[in-house]
Design brief:
This is Plastid lipid-associated protein/fibrillin conserved domain-containing protein. The chain has helices at 17-31, 58-84, 96-111, 140-145, 212-218, 222-229; strands spanning 127-134, 152-162, 167-176, 182-194, 199-210, 233-240, 244-249, 254-259. With 265 residues, the chain is α+β, with helices and mostly antiparallel strands.
């Protein structure tokens, strides 16, 4: 009687090392996609899953946006200064098209005011400022009466603000060509108090003209002169930064001033 030999199933532990390695290799090959299905990148033919991950830094993006805004503001200020060239602060009148151009640039700056509550940060307002533009105008008979056509020249206009004393001094400088190039100034002292986060109320206190020779020139029309430059009323501070300030008063006037370092003006 023949005997059938039944071979028991082979266990991995009983498989020769060579067969064991071959079987494991075959199992792995079934798990790995075929080469034809692997997408490769253009750089170094790397498999897709080796593509480097790009991280976006949101903070840097925000900072960049801030820089763009600052540059836009600086550009608007440069455009305003360019528009103000050659108009002598607008005191003796400017063409209507030029006036509209300037006021549009002023409005753009006001809409981007970096100090929305200026009376809460009066340290930004303190110090000496020089007028670069105003809608105050001296035209026609007023200019003739004040001798501001040929005889007397209107020079610089400064404003010194002392926030500790709540005082402001406006200084308007003149030179009289007929008096051996005599130079002098009108000084108007005023006090102010905070009326809102953007507005101050102004009270004129006293005024002087020096030297006496210049006072003699203006004496007849002194009230007219004060009526033009008197700061009495209220002033809305519509824009202020480290170098420029814009304001509007209760008479509808616009003032654009730049910071001036000489406090002895």
């Amino acid at each position: 009687m023949a005997t059938n030999l039944i071979q028991p199933p082979l266990k991995d532990s009983c498989v020769s090392p060579l067969i064991h390695r071959t079987m494991n290799s075959m199992k792995l090959q079934r798990l790995v996609p075929t080469p034809s299905r692997i997408n490769t990148s253009k750089l170094g033919e790397r498999p897709v899953w080796f593509r480097p991950i790009t991280f976006i830094k949101v903070a840097e993006h925000s900072s960049s946006s801030g820089l763009v805004e600052d540059e836009t503001l600086a550009q608007k200020k440069r455009e305003l200064y360019q528009a103000l060239e050659g108009i002598n602060r607008g005191i003796f009148g400017i063409p209507s098209a030029k006036k509209i151009e300037i006021e549009n640039l002023v409005k753009l700056l006001e809409s981007q005011n970096p100090t929305p509550n200026p009376t809460l940060e009066l340290e930004k307002v303190a110090g000496c400022w020089r007028l670069v533009y105003s809608t105050i105008s001296i035209l026609g008979s007023k200019r003739t009466k004040l001798g501001l056509r040929d005889f007397i020249s209107l020079d610089e206009f400064f404003q010194n603000i002392d926030i500790a004393k709540s005082k402001a001094v406006n200084v308007i400088k003149f030179s009289a060509m007929g008096l051996n190039l005599l130079s002098g100034k009108l000084s108007i002292e005023a006090s102010f108090k905070i009326a809102s986060t953007t507005r101050v109320d102004i009270n004129s206190e006293n005024s002087t003209i020096t030297p006496d020779q210049l006072m003699n020139v203006f004496r007849k029309n002194y009230d007219l002169l004060l009526g033009i430059f008197n700061p009495e009323g209220w002033l809305e501070i519509t824009y202020v930064d480290e170098s420029m300030r814009i304001g509007r008063d209760d008479k509808g006037n616009i003032f654009v001033l730049e910071r001036f370092e000489d406090r002895n003006s």
